[in-house]
Amino acid sequence: MSNATFWWLLVGAMVALELFTGTFYLLMLAIGMAVAALAAHAGLGLTGQLLLGAVVGSAAVIGWHVKKRQEAKAQSADEQSEVRLDVGETVHVEQWLADGTAQVHYRGAKWDAIHRPGVSPGPGQHRVAELVGNRLLVEKI
């Protein structure tokens, strides 16, 4: 069996394993193996095939990893911009409960509101200062 055939069989095995596991990184390694197979077709020695396949496969894995991190950061920034949309909005607090929370109507739903620490709560208009988990941190206007 020639080196090229061996590399193509490995490429097929990696693609099949990726389909079975859903690990996209295996496709990146398969790209490196495909490059090694093409290098074998071009007549490059086994050492060159291994080096070329390892460099291309590693670069593909690193490139994919960097791309996924950038997407995660962009998604996080989008989520933060959604949170910033709430900051500064006003809500009306009817009454504060003994545990320091209040039920307020905001965006068509009931939300739990908590007051800023160090400030005595009172009924009336409050401004959303930030979101803390699924609660609104509010301050008196």
User: Biggest β-sheet: count, sense, barrel?
Assistant: 5 strands, mixed
How confident overall, as mean pLDDT?
Answer: 87
What's the β-strand tally?
Answer: 5
Radius of gyration using CA atoms only: 28 Å
Report on this model:
The protein is an alpha+beta fold and 141 residues long. The chain is 55% helix and 23% strand. It is built from three helices and five strands. It has helices at residues 3-21, 25-41, 46-86, and strands spanning 90-93, 101-106, 109-115, 124-132, 135-140. A five-stranded mixed beta sheet has the order 1-4-5-3-2. Strand 2 and strand 3 (109-115) form a beta hairpin. The protein is rod-shaped, with a radius of gyration of 28 Å. The model has no long low-confidence stretch (mean pLDDT 87).
